[in-house]
Amino acid sequence: xxxxxxxxxxxxxxxxxxxxxxxxxxxxxxxxxxxxxxxxxxxxxxxxxxxxxxxxxxxxxxxxxxxxxxxxxxxxxxxxxxxxxxxxxxxxxxxxxxxxxxxxxxxxxxxxxxxxxxxxxxxxxxxxxxxxxxxxxxxxxxxxxxxxxxxxxxxxxxxxxxxxxxxxxxxxxxxxxxxxxxxxxxxxxxxxxxxxxxxxxxxxxxxxxxxxxxxxxxxxxxxxxxxxxxxxxxxxxxxxxxxxxxxxxxxxxxxxxxxxxxxxxxxxxxxxxxxxxxxxxxxxxxxxxxxxxxxxxxxxxxxxxxxxxxxxxxxxxxxxxxxxxxxxxxxxxxxxxxxxxxxxxxxxxxxxxxxxxxxxxxxxxxxxxxxxxxxxxxxxxxxxxxxxxxxxxxxxxxxxxxxxxxxxxxxxxxxxxxxxxxxxxxxxxxxxxxxxxxxxxxxxxxxxxxxxxxxxxxxxxxxxxxxxxxxxxxxxxxxxxxxxxxxxxxxx
Length: 492
Ligand SMILES: O=C(O)C[C@H](Nc1ncnc2c1ncn2[C@@H]1O[C@H](COP(=O)(O)O)[C@@H](O)[C@H]1O)C(=O)O
Prior knowledge:
The chain is mainly α.
C-alpha cells in the first residue's frame, strides 16, 4: 500500500539518501543519538559490550576458583593451579576488552545464535592463543573443558548483570542523584529564612520558607537513596536447575555449596542466593527498580513544582548567552530543562515499572523473557540519568526573585486569619470575653475580601486579647508568619 501520494514518492522516496547507509550507525533511541553524551556513563556498565565484558570476568574468575581452589589446591583433579602470568593473561581478556573483542564475539554469535556460548568460544580462542603469549610450554589450550564448567548460561548472566547493575548504580546513578540532593540541601540552608507564600489547592495558605520547602525534598530523597545505597545484589551459581546436579555428578567430593558461596560473595562481591530455579529470581532487581522509580516520581514532583514556581515568578531563570527561548517570541526564557527532566523521568518509570513487574516471573524452572527484558535496564537507568542531568542543570540556572516573593506575601494578608482565630480559641479557653465563634468571626472579616495590614490590625484591636498576645499578633505579617519553618531545615 502506498503511504504517500505518487508525486511525493517519486520526489522523496526514490532519490533520497538512506539514513541507514550512514556511518556511524544512526541511532533509533535518543539515548544513543541526541542524548548520547549524557547517557554514556550508563553505557559503560549497561550495554551489550559491557555485559559481555562482565561475562568474561565471571567465566574467568570461575576458572581461577576451580583451578586454584580455596586454599587447598585445585578443586579439579588433573588441573594445576594457574600461575600468576596465566591469571593475568586470562584477566586481560576483560581488562583489554575492545572493539576487536566485540567483533570476535559477534562472529561467534553469528554461528552459535547463543550469546553466552559465544563468550565460551571467545575464551577458548584465547586459550588456544596463549602459548604464543606465555610460551610454548603453556598448558592453557588443554584446559578448554574448564571454561563454563558445570555452568548454565544463567549462572554467568545473573552474576554479570548483578555486577553491571551494581557498578552502574554505585558509580554513576547514585552519585548523580546525590548531586541533586546536595544541591537542594545547600540551597535549603541558604534560603531557610526566606518567607514564601504557600499554596494549598493552588490557593494562598499559611506561609512557609523557601528553604523548608526544599528541605522536604531533601528528606524524601535521602530516605530513598539510603535504601538504594544499602541495596543487596544477589547472585547464584548452582547449575541448570539450581540443584548442583552436574557439579555433584562430575565431582562429588567438592563442597559445592561452599565453593558457590565463596565465588558469589568473596570473589564477585555480591550476596549469595542459595535457592533458585535455573534463574536467579530477580527479586532484588524488582526492589531496586521500584525504589528508583519512586525516586523518579519524587524528582518529577520537584520538576513540576519548580516549573510552577518559575511560572509564578518565584524563581527567575538565568538566560543562557546565545540561547533561544522561543523561536517566535523573543522575550521568552523557557524552563526546558525541567520539562525534559519530566519526560525522561516518565520514560524511565515506564521501563522500570515494567522490569520490576515482569522480571519476577518465569515459567517453571526458566523461560527466556528475562533475557530480552534485561537488555533494557541500561535504557531505564539512562533515561533517569538524563533527567538527573537536566534537573541539576535547571536547578543551577534559577534563583529566587525577592520582588515577586515579597509582592505575593504583601498581597495576601488574609493568610493571617489562621493565627488570629487560633489565638482567639486559646483566649476563649482562658475565659477571656468576646472570643466566641473565632473561626466564624475571622471568616466573616476575611473570606472573599482583599484584606490590608490595616484591616488586620483593626480587627485585632476590636478583640480583648491580653497585651502580650495582642502585640504578638500585631507584629505578624505574611512574611513573618512562617512558624518554625527555618528550624525544621535541620532535619533534612
Ligand atoms: O545455558 C543454557 O543455554 C541453558 C538454556 N537456557 C538458556 N539460558 C540463557 N540463555 C539462553 C538459554 N537458551 C538460549 N539462550 C540464549 O539467550 C539469548 C536470548 O536472546 P534475547 O532474546 O535477545 O535476549 C540467545 O542468545 C539464546 O541462544 C536451557 O535450555 O535451559
